[in-house]
Amino acid sequence: MTTVRNKFLEYEGVSKRIPSIEKDVRIEVLRYFRHRMNPTQQRHKQDGNSLIRTSRSTDNFPEYSQENGQAPAESGGGGPDIPRILPSTQYGLAIMRENSNVDDSELINDQRRLSHCVENVLCAYLNRHLVSQEEPYNETYPIPQRVATFLTLFRKTLPELYAYFEAEEVDILSVATSWLQHLLAREMQSHDLMRLWDTYFAVPDLLDLHLYVCLAILTNCRDALEDLDRSETMSMLFSLPPLNVDRIISDAINIRLSLEHDEMYE
User: According to the lineage, what is the superkingdom (predicted)?
Assistant: First the structure.
């Protein structure tokens, strides 16, 4: 209890304001909510292109029509049946006003709480570990260098899957760049991401561990990936299915230990 209390007091004492990223954090949380609350996206989850277009557009609200603020017929319900979320556009604000009879206060409060929590944790971590450093990690280990290291480890750890990606002409370079640069924030399910980042914030070498987490994800998804063609593979890699994060972390540690053991005896 003393350790927990000390960590809590340390967290409370860290500044949780970085104005330059706070707006981006709120936008990303809104995107997660749109993605999870949109029934059309849930039915067409395998359509990676549709997912990417919908999740990255700040103006697209497919669950409502622009004429009357109601859900289209193919969505399976009317406007009042689909909870709303905090808007990020003038159109979204207009939709909320037109559908004032919808009681979505609980959903909006949930979104505000999640946004506030994520914003506080990210800003506190950056203020505590990265912003104050004289030589940031990204300058010492730039993204191209980390991507090259990852691809080397990928080829060594999963040679058959790597060869399959090459044969299918999967753009693994763009996948690796996104996975490493954004710590899977764009690709993972939100609840899985929070569990993963909870572990990251508790270890001193999170960016090093992240390399092996990416390998562990590929290891756990290998069988499914080998049954897909190029476009399906890209869709899955940019919109990952629900994962057993505890297993992913355990596998990542084992992969790192195995590779270090091999290097020791080479």
Answer: Eukaryota
CA distance 133 to 138: 11
190 pLDDT band, cuts 50/70/90, is confident
Cβ neighbours of residue 234 closer than 8 Å, sequence gap 6 or more: 48, 170, 171, 175
Closest CA to 251 of 208, 217, 223: 217
- Quick one: CA torsion of 33, 186, 215, 192, rounded to 10 degrees? -20
The residue type found at 237 is L
**The whole model's pTM is what?**
0.58
- Please report the pLDDT score of residue 130 as a whole number: 59
pLDDT in tens, 141-163: 688 899 999 999 999 999 999 99
Q: How far is CA 257 from the centre of its chain?
A: 26
Q: Which residue has the tokens 């914030």?
A: 201
Exposure letters 94-115 (e unless 16+ CB within 10 A, then b): ebbeebeebebeebeeebeebb
∠ CA 147-151-154, rounded to 5°: 135
By C-alpha distance, which of 81, 76, 79, 34 is closest to 56? 34
